[in-house]
Design brief:
This protein has eight helices and eight strands; from the N terminus they run βαβαβαβαββαβαβαα. By secondary structure, it is of the alpha/beta class. It has a single domain, classed as Aldolase class I (TIM Barrel, Alpha-Beta Barrel), CATH 3.20.20. Strands 1-8-7-6-5-4-3-2 form an eight-stranded parallel β-sheet. Helix 4 links the parallel strand 4 and strand 5. The longest helix has 17 residues. The radius of gyration is 16 Å and the shape is globular.
Length: about 220
């Protein structure tokens, strides 16, 4: 069943604890945490100390998305800070197999991320053990961007690979998800949807999560 992961990048950092508790009221299980270094992407966000602070105020699983040049150097620090899931970009990893296995060895679920211009075929050698694949439906680095429709073609390719090879990795999508396209996203076969401004940019973030979830479930229920 599709799940919504609110992205704290779109939350009010002056009231971050309050915003997190607001979306917890919708019954979510996970939060998405974007980490940017100003090198791999043209923006800087947060590091392990902020993740550690978030861990203190919530028991939700923290899905940490590392948009950084050298993820291997920081995996241990983020797991120690409280990350339960860590995803790294295929484009940033010289030795992707080793990086993903090191995340799992640290005790977190390992995810691999694909930028919009990176083909699914680059992951064929790691799909048998990775925990989830994150498809970027915008170019990484900034929130509030417009959804790239062809991202759903990648989702469908991943669904076919998963079925054909009898695998169990989850499929996540990140960027531009909202009420207008959540139905298409759900029908494509996505399991986890990162939602930023479409949740925290509303008057009632908890209700926004509920509405997105219901729209997605209805779309799948009426699929022909």
């Amino acid at each position: 069943m599709l799940e919504i992961l609110p992205s704290i990048l779109s939350a009010d950092f002056a009231r971050l604890g309050e915003d997190i508790h607001r979306v917890e009221a919708a019954g979510i299980r996970m939060l998405h945490v974007d980490v940017m270094d100003g090198h791999f992407v043209p923006n800087i966000t947060l590091g392990p100390p902020v993740v550690k602070s978030i861990r203190k105020i919530t028991k939700l699983t923290l899905d940490v998305h590392l948009m950084i040049t050298d993820p291997d150097q920081y995996i241990g620090a983020f797991v120690e800070a409280g990350a339960g899931m860590i995803s790294v970009h295929q484009e940033a990893c010289r030795h992707l197999d080793r990086t993903l296995r090191s995340i799992q060895a640290e005790g977190a679920e390992a995810g691999v991320v694909l930028n919009p211009a990176t083909p699914v075929s680059t992951l064929d050698e790691v799909l048998d053990f990775v925990d989830y694949v994150l498809v970027m439906s915008v170019n990484p680095g900034f929130g509030g961007q417009k959804f790239i429709p062809r991202s759903l073609d990648k989702v469908r390719q991943l669904v076919r690979r998963r079925q054909e090879r009898g695998l169990s990795f989850a499929i996540e999508i990140d960027g531009g998800a909202g009420p207008a396209n959540i139905g298409d996203i759900a029908r494509a076969g996505v399991d986890l949807v990162v939602a930023g401004s479409s949740v925290f940019g509303t008057a009632d973030p908890a209700q926004a999560v509920r509405d997105l979830t219901m729209t997605a479930r209805d779309a799948v229920s009426f699929r022909v």
